[in-house]
Specification:
By secondary structure, the chain is of the alpha+beta class. The chain is 55% helix and 15% strand. Strands 3-2-8-1-9 form a five-stranded antiparallel beta sheet, sandwiched between helices. It has a four-stranded mixed beta sheet with strand order 4-6-5-7. Helix 2 runs antiparallel to helix 12, helix 9 packs parallel to helix 12 and helix 11 packs antiparallel against helix 12. The longest helix has 45 residues.
Length: 389
């Protein structure tokens, strides 16, 4: 008499039952993976603003009275505006001589909004003189793909991803909701990040700022300290690499990480309940079969080994099925939803795949409880009629 039960014989003869478990586990894989895929578009897209833009351009918005030392007493609005501009131009001239600084200008800033799958963020667009725009675009590695460079007040160029994300039209107005019809898109650029620039509008006074093109400055506050300006956290805004890394971690990575943990927990709990109920029902239906095996000489250990091999096949098939469906779904979502919105994403998430393997291991372990319980209830064939299982 053979001492090893064939797991594949049961799988072939009970294809529908096994298929239900495989599909259920595969859907668990797909749900977890696609959740991370969609949330990653937020990190990949908005993170580009915080990690790439500050490496090439730092934006400084310094308080006039507390930081720049402007005496605002008895000053009219026009006088204050002129004094603030003069002080900022002095700062820009001093920064041009600092180590690592390629160039610096005083200008105005407007904002472009990028909306991701979860959340949105504004990034700064410099408004400077006509002669300064080519140098800024060259520093960002941007190339003109449509139209021309700004030549007149109120004209801007914008990257193609921002155009898609906001449904802007080449030659149309920029962000009419916030800026009415003061800014016109005269050119579209190809760029590795979200970016745009232009010339200030004559009838619209945007927020003043100093723009610094640098070659690897991480902490602009330290550079400002060297030229005699101490940045105050609650009064001044300094957008540099240090700020970008901190903001990315606290507002994007940590928030998404917490969200995914709650989502994963919900999926695992629902999957655990449904899988345990379904599998326990299957085990009850197999009670007589195992009693027969035990009566003809198979040990409980042999029966348990066959059940474990069945489960390993089920989880393995679910892993392959879920992986294939997840990748195909991610490709479809990327081409149909992510790219048309001007967003970026990653198709491969090894860390998420490893987390799914851990989830599978947890579910596999939990299913051992009803299996071991069912094995303890096995009776020999002469006692089966009296079994009240």
């Amino acid at each position: 008499m053979p001492q090893k039960l064939s797991a594949m014989r049961y799988i072939r003869n009970n294809g529908r039952r096994v298929a239900v478990l495989v599909v259920s586990l595969g859907l668990c894989f797909v749900l977890v993976y696609l959740t991370q895929f969609l949330l990653s578009s937020t990190e990949e897209s908005l993170g580009r603003i915080m990690s790439e833009n500050p490496k090439k351009m730092q934006v400084l918005m310094l308080a006039g009275k507390t930081t720049l030392g402007i005496d605002t007493e008895n000053m009219s609005d026009e006088e204050l505006t002129r004094a603030y501009a003069e002080k900022n131009r002095e700062v820009a001239e001093k920064l041009k001589k600092a180590a690592g600084v390629k160039n610096a200008w005083f200008g105005q800033v407007i904002y472009c909004t990028i909306s991701a799958a979860v959340g949105q963020m504004d990034y700064e667009m410099p408004l400077v003189e006509k002669e300064e725009i080519p140098e800024i675009l060259e520093h960002f590695g941007a190339k003109l793909a449509w139209g021309r460079l700004p030549e007149n007040p109120g004209e801007i160029v914008l990257d193609n991803l921002s155009m898609k994300n906001n449904d802007f039209v080449p030659g149309g107005y920029f962000n009419e909701k916030n800026y009415a019809q003061y800014y016109t898109i005269v050119g579209v650029i190809d760029c590795d990040t979200y970016f745009g620039c232009g010339i200030p509008a004559e009838e619209w006074n945007a927020r003043p700022a100093v723009f610094v093109l640098s070659e690897g400055i991480d902490d602009m506050s330290a550079v400002l300290h060297e030229i005699g300006i101490d940045v105050r956290e609650n009064y001044d805004t300094v957008l540099d690499v240090k700020w970008g890394e901190k903001y990315l971690k606290e507002e994007i990575v940590d928030v998404i990480g917490n969200s995914t943990r709650f989502i994963y927990a919900g999926i695992v709990v629902l999957m655990l309940i449904s899988l345990t109920v379904v599998y326990t029902t299957y085990l009850r239906d197999r009670h007589n079969e195992w009693c027969l095996y035990c009566s003809i000489g198979y040990s409980r250990r042999t029966i348990y080994g066959a059940v474990v091999r069945e489960l390993l096949f089920t989880f393995g098939a679910a892993l392959v099925q879920g992986g294939i469906v997840s990748l195909l779904s991610a490709l479809l979502l990327n081409s149909a939803m992510v790219e048309p919105q001007g967003l970026k994403c990653r198709l491969l998430h090894p860390k998420t795949a490893a987390e799914i393997l851990c989830i599978y291991a947890f579910l596999f372990g939990i299913l051992q409880i009803p299996v071991r319980y069912a094995l303890c209830r096995i009776r020999t064939i002469d006692a089966m009629e009296d079994d009240l299982y």
